[in-house]
Every structure is written in structure tokens, then in C-alpha cells.
């Protein structure tokens, strides 16, 4: 009897388990949305990830409230604390979170889809954009999670890779991406940068390798020379004109340029005095592109604001007697530039001066300035006049000054890249913020977000031990001077 009861209970349990399992299965079916995709569409994913990263590089966190002020392209006329290097912890956290949790995760999924669908072109484009995102992160923070960063199934607390290893890894990743591209293979959709032109994506990958190779040139000149010599052997494989610039051209609201959106409700930024004074000094025809004339008449028509003024001093300058950002940059469709033709030429000029390639540095330098002026729609006559000035002549004995000054102007809308090159070349010769809080020093990195200390403490500590104190003034590996 006892055995019979056990048997009955067992059968009852199995019956109930089967019933519940069936119910669960039916509930899962009922709860499925027949109109919702169960697998990410690569074209939608690619378009969204490109837009989200473009919004980061022109947004408040990584651009308006940090790098564009550090590099003295813009200045604050109100709410000036951030212009004195009191950096918001929220800004720091947002950059990290948005690049890792949004862009990089999307690019990893695009790479995966490319592999699973036997479409190496999606795989390549995902890898190129992933490399660009990692480059932005390491340029800003230094040592970062890289090799384990996107392997959430293996580690939710990824280690920080040394900056040198990140750059070397990115050089390899970009070479792989360039080699993966099949110009005659399956097309890609959702491409807001090159509208599906795989040849241009290949050029972007190679031009990004050129950028990173120069980034390590002061630390690892042999690797830099090897990579650059390989790239320069086939110039047609690099971005070769302003029509090949890697950029996202925005649309009208609600998909407008983040700067345009910001200007709809705020008026607390002005063009820095450092930029306007340099443009006036050089009789630079980009002045009316970069800045607007003052609303109230002033002797020079263009008046910049000194970076890092106390709030009351900035206010006394007057909103109508200082120059706002030029209309080119506040237009809804103004582009987010990832990598320009002028930058490629400046990089080749520096490579030639360093002896990495057998070209004339002065010629490439002039070509780079010309490309920048054309990018900003300067007339050919004004370009000729500008280049003829002795003040623009290339100085081989101090090439970092010649290239650094002009590159700083050419990168006017690219705060993160301008900040990296300012640290690497040590030009232009800027003065720190007037009332800066860093004892007369510039910021040379961003501190790690507080979220890392809470969620990845051991690896955070290891990174700080390797790199140095977690301060704005701790130099990164690539910044040797």
C-alpha cells in the first residue's frame, strides 16, 4: 500500500509538472509580440549606433562641457565652473556609459551578425566603429577595459588594459577590418556615414590606423614607422578628399546636430579668445565661419572670451559684446566629423618630417591647410592669399608648432581629437584657464567614473597603480612631454 501511494504521488507530481510546463509554454506564446523582431536587424542597429556615437562626440558630456573648453575652442560666459576645470562627475560617467553600454555593445552585435550571416562587410564596419570608440575612450581616460570589455558572459568586471596595449590592439583590429572588406561582396544598409560605400569604409579604417600610429610615435617609433610606411605606400587607400570625410551629416529636428539643439534653449558659450585672437593674427579666412560678429558694434567685430573667468567677470563682458559660435556649427545639419581629409594630410606631413615616409613635409602641410579651408568653404582666392603669408610658412625646425597650431584650427569642431593632439604635440602654446582650479595646470585626461569604483573596484585600483593617481593632471602613456 505504501509503494502504491508513492507511485500515485509521483504520477500526480509529474502530471502537475507537465501541466505547469504546458501553461508556461502557452503563456510565453501569448506574451510574444508578433510585430516585434526577435533578432536585431543590422541596418537599424548600425544606423542607431552611428547616431548615438556622433551625439556623444558633439554632446554636452564629451564636448561642450569638457574637451572643447580644455582645448580653448569655446569658453563659458555663464556658469563658468566647468571652464575652470571643475569637471562634473555626471559628465565623466555619461561618456563612459554611453560609449560602452550603447555604441560598443551595438558594434559587438553588428560584428556577431556579420559572422553569423556570412557578411564580412558588416563585421568589418562594426570593427572599425568599435576601434574608433575604444580610441576615444583611451584618449580620454588612459588604461581602459578593452580585451575583456565586451565579453559579459565571461567577466562582468573586466580588467583594464594598459594604454599601449589598447593602441597596439586597435592597430591590429583596424588592419583586420580593412582586410575583411569585400568590395564585391554583400552590401550593407543603415550606413549613415558613407551610404554603403565599402571602399570609403576601407579608407576610414586605414586613416584611423594612421592616426593611432602617430599617437604612439613618441613612445614606439618603430611600430609607428612600420604601420605608416605600409599605409603611405598606397595613398589611394587613405581618405583622399573632402568628399570622403568620415562624418554624420545631421538632419532637421528631432535629428538635428546636438550643438544646434543645445543652442535652442541656452546661450552660455562663446568662442574662446584664444581662437579668435589667433585667427585675427593670421588673417585667417575661417574667422567668420568659426565665430559670429558681436551683436553690439565692437572695434574688431569679433570678441572672444578668456577661458576660466570668474562668473562675475565673464558676465561683465556682455552677451551682446562677445562672439557666439559661427552659424556653420549651430545649423541643424552641421556634421559630426569622425576623421577629416585635412587630418590625414597633417598626419602624413608629420610622418614625413619624422622620416617615416619619403615625402616633402612642407608640401603636405600646405595641402592639409588647403583641405581644411576648403572643408569650411573658403574661396580659392582667399586660400592662395592665406598660404602666401610668411606667418603660415612651414617651420621644419619646429614642426610641432607649425602642425600643432594649424591642426588645432582645422580640428575646431572635433574636441576630443584636438585635445589629444594638443597633449601630444604641446602646441598651440595656450595658457591654462584664468581662474583654473588645477594650480596653473591643464587637464590632461578625465578621471575614471565613480561607477567603476563601485562596480569594478579591484581592476580600477590596478589601473590606478599602473597609470598613476586618478587625477585630471596625471599624464597618459602617449603624452611624453
TrEMBL record:
Protein origin, superkingdom: Bacteria
Record SUPFAM superfamilies: TPR-like
InterPro entries associated with the record: SusD-like_2 (IPR041662), TPR-like_helical_dom_sf (IPR011990)
A Pfam family this chain is assigned to: SusD-like_2
Name the UniProt record assigns to this protein: Starch-binding associating with outer membrane
Species per Swiss-Prot/TrEMBL record: Pseudarcicella hirudinis
Amino acid at each position: 500500500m505504501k509503494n502504491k501511494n508513492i507511485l500515485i504521488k509521483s504520477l500526480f507530481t509529474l502530471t502537475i509538472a507537465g501541466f505547469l510546463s504546458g501553461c508556461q509554454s502557452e503563456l510565453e506564446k501569448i506574451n510574444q509580440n508578433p510585430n516585434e523582431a526577435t533578432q536585431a536587424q543590422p541596418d537599424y542597429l548600425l544606423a542607431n549606433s552611428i547616431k548615438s556615437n556622433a551625439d556623444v562626440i558633439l554632446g554636452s558630456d564629451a564636448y561642450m562641457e569638457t574637451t572643447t573648453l580644455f582645448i580653448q575652442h569655446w569658453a563659458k560666459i555663464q556658469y563658468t565652473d566647468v571652464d575652470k576645470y571643475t569637471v562634473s562627475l555626471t559628465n565623466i560617467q555619461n561618456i563612459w556609459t554611453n560609449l560602452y553600454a550603447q555604441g560598443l555593445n551595438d558594434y559587438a552585435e553588428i560584428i556577431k551578425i556579420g559572422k553569423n550571416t556570412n557578411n564580412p562587410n558588416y563585421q568589418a564596419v562594426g570593427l572599425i566603429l568599435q576601434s574608433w570608440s575604444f580610441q576615444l575612450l583611451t584618449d580620454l581616460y588612459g588604461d581602459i577595459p578593452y580585451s575583456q570589455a565586451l565579453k559579459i558572459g565571461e567577466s562582468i568586471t573586466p580588467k583594464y588594459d594598459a594604454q599601449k596595449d589598447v593602441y597596439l590592439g586597435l592597430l591590429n583590429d583596424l588592419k583586420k577590418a580593412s582586410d575583411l572588406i569585400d568590395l564585391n561582396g554583400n552590401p550593407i544598409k543603415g550606413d549613415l556615414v558613407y551610404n554603403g560605400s565599402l571602399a570609403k569604409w576601407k579608407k576610414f579604417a586605414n586613416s584611423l590606423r594612421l592616426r593611432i600610429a602617430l599617437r604612439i610615435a613618441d613612445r614606439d617609433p618603430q611600430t609607428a614607422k612600420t604601420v605608416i610606411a605600409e599605409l603611405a605606400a598606397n595613398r589611394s587607400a587613405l581618405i583622399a578628399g573632402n568628399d570622403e570625410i568620415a562624418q554624420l551629416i545631421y538632419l532637421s529636428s528631432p535629428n538635428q546636430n546636438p550643438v544646434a539643439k543645445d543652442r535652442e534653449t541656452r546661450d552660455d558659450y562663446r568662442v574662446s579668445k584664444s581662437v579668435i585672437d589667433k585667427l585675427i593674427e593670421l588673417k585667417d579666412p575661417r574667422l567668420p565661419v568659426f565665430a559670429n560678429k558681436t551683436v553690439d558694434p565692437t572695434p574688431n567685430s569679433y570678441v572672444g572670451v578668456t577661458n576660466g573667468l570668474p562668473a562675475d567677470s565673464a558676465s561683465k563682458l556682455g552677451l551682446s559684446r562677445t562672439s557666439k559660435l559661427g552659424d556653420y556649427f549651430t545649423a541643424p545639419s552641421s556634421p559630426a566629423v569622425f576623421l577629416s581629409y585635412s587630418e590625414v594630410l597633417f598626419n602624413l606631413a608629420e610622418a614625413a618630417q619624422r622620416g617615416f615616409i619619403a615625402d616633402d613635409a612642407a608640401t603636405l602641410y600646405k595641402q592639409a591647410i588647403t583641405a581644411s579651408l576648403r572643408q569650411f568653404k573658403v574661396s580659392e582666392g582667399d586660400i592662395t592669399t592665406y598660404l602666401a603669408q610668411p606667418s603660415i610658412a612651414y617651420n621644419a625646425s619646429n614642426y610641432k608648432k607649425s602642425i600643432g597650431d594649424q591642426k588645432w584650427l582645422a580640428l575646431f569642431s572635433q574636441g576630443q581629437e584636438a585635445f589629444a593632439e594638443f597633449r601630444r604635440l604641446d602646441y598651440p602654446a595656450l595658457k591654462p584657464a584664468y581662474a583654473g582650479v588645477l594650480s596653473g595646470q591643464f587637464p590632461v585626461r578625465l578621471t575614471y567614473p565613480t561607477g567603476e569604483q563601485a562596480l569594478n573596484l579591484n581592476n580600477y585600483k590596478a589601473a590606478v597603480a599602473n597609470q598613476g593617481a586618478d587625477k585630471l593632471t596625471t599624464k597618459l602613456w602617449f603624452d611624453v612631454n
